């Protein structure tokens, strides 16, 4: 069975754990403070979400990065062997506290993340909806909530589209990072776009 980790247990990590739990799917979670700090968190998702340390989370087949863009380097440096595993970039590159897009000198934020996880197949996903919307039931009377994804490995995109579908959302694969990420990333036209597919 494919193992899945969510690294980051803040607003987006919590929203994802909520959806995994509701879909009856299992995942491990990790934060910077260790599993002992996550007893209350995992109690909300008993049977589906288990807390581990970051080192263990980084061994999963699919690793979802649900932390601030600037925190990623220190989190992923504890794994050097990616060997084609999938890393899902849910981050937005933002300057705090003024909430402006980070100037990455022509690079896409997910390209910066990709350099930190050499050999991984990186997919950008779960970054377009605000956390309370991501946490809400994606199946509504008007249709399924849409989640966008993009990445340079079509097989990894398919795998994450399938995961998104199992979580109850309607996946839309935008293609390569250069095609999709500029639309998905902070200040792009799909950022905060809350669409329903009937
Ligand atoms: N909030 C939103 O509505 C929203 C929407 C779209 C995209 N995003 C993006 O999603 C990402 C997460 O945002 P958020 O709002 O969920 O942030 P958040 O609530 O501040 O949570 C950040 C999480 O990252 C963990 N973390 C930080 N450094 C770490 C490390 N070195 N190793 C492991 N875990 C680490 C923190 O753990 P500790 O608490 O233990 O430090 C915390 O659980 C950001 O890139 C943000 O731009 C957010």
Structural commentary:
This protein is of the alpha/beta class. The protein has a single domain (4-197), classed as 3-Layer(aba) Sandwich (Rossmann fold), CATH 3.40.50.720. The protein has helices at residues 11-22, 39-43, 54-57, 72-76, 109-116, 131-135, 154-166, 177-184, and strands at 4-7, 27-30, 49-51, 62-65, 86-89, 94-95, 100-101, 121-125, 139-140, 143-151, 170-173, 196-197. The strands form 2 sheets. Strands 1, 2, 3, 4, 5, 8, 9, 10, 11 and 12 form a 10-stranded mixed beta sheet that branches. Strands 6-7 form a two-stranded antiparallel ribbon. Helix 4 (72-76) links the parallel strand 4 (62-65) and strand 5. The two termini are 31 Å apart. The mean pLDDT is 97. NADP nicotinamide-adenine-dinucleotide phosphate binds at residues 7-13, 30-33, 54, 66-69, 71, 74-75, 90-92, 94, 127, 130-131.
Features:
single chain; binds NADP nicotinamide-adenine-dinucleotide phosphate
What's this model, at a glance?
The protein has 198 residues and is α/β, with parallel strands linked by helices. The protein contains 8 helices and 12 strands. The strands form 2 sheets. Strands 1, 2, 3, 4, 5, 8, 9, 10, 11 and 12 form a 10-stranded mixed β-sheet that branches. Strands 6-7 form a two-stranded antiparallel sheet.
């Amino acid at each position: 069975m494919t193992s899945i980790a969510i690294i980051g247990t803040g607003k987006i990590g919590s929203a994802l754990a909520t959806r995994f739990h509701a879909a009856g799917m299992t995942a491990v979670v990790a934060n910077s403070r260790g599993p002992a700090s996550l007893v209350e968190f995992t109690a909300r998702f008993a049977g589906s979400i288990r807390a581990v340390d970051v080192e263990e989370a980084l061994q999963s087949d699919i690793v979802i990065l649900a932390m601030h863009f600037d925190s990623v380097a220190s989190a992923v440096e504890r794994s050097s062997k990616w060997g084609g595993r999938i890393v899902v970039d849910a981050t937005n590159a933002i300057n705090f506290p003024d909430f402006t897009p980070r100037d990455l000198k022509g690079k896409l934020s997910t390209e910066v993340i990709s350099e930190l996880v050499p050999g991984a197949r990186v997919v950008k996903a779960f970054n377009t909806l605000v956390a309370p919307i991501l946490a809400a039931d994606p199946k509504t009377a008007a249709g399924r909530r849409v989640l966008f994804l993009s990445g340079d490995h079509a097989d990894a995109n398919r795998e994450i589209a399938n995961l998104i579908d199992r979580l109850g959302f309607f996946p839309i694969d935008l293609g390569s990072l250069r095609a999709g990420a500029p639309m998905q990333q902070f200040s792009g036209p799909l950022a905060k776009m809350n669409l329903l597919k009937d």
